[in-house]
Amino acid sequence: MDIAALITWVITALGGFYMLGTWLSRGGARGGASRLPVPVVFGHFALAAVGLVVWIIYVIADKDVLAWTAFGLLVPVALLGFTMLARWLPVYRAGQATPATGEQSEPAERYFPVPVVAGHGLFAVVTVVLVLLTALGIGGS
Q1: 140 in any annotated domain
Q2: Is pLDDT above 70 for 29?
Q3: Whose CA, among 107, 109, 119, 138, lies 20 to 30 Å from 94?
């Protein structure tokens, strides 16, 4: 199950990297119209990246404390992710009502593809569950 969690975590990270790249390339970090606070975005990214590194070390070393540490890191990652989702939804809904014009006043997150957002969230939930089950010793290593 630890390898399955690693795979889902990497898939989640790939979707996150895509959205982070889109957000940065559209000027999200410069503030402007973005509804996603820079500290939340980079906090989510940093904690998730550190957690992934801890998980990789866990897979290699098989030390329970590392599994629990990775899970502990995933809790604030998930909370920050839900925060960003809640702030993205109005942007998505507003984008459906009016077509994109490419103006600078549009939030950078307006350009996140819905399948990427949904896939990122789905794989993130699966990752959290798999990491928790592994830390609890359920399903074997």
Answers
A1: no
A2: yes
A3: 119
Are the C-beta atoms of residues 85 and 29 closer than 8 Å to each other?
no
Band of residue 98 on the pLDDT scale cut at 50, 70, 90? low
State residue 135 phi and psi, 5-degree precision: -60, -35
pTM above 0.85, yes or no: yes
Number of domains in the chain: 1
Query: How many whole angstroms separate alpha carbon 93 and alpha carbon 130?
Result: 32
Specify if 43 maps to a domain.
Answer: yes
> What residues contact residue 107 under an 8 Å CB cut-off, 6+ apart?
28, 32, 33, 34, 35, 36, 91
Average pLDDT, rounded, for the chain: 92
Q: Is residue 31 part of a domain?
A: no
Which domain does 104 fall in, by range? Answer: 2-26+36-135
Residue 46 lies in a domain: yes
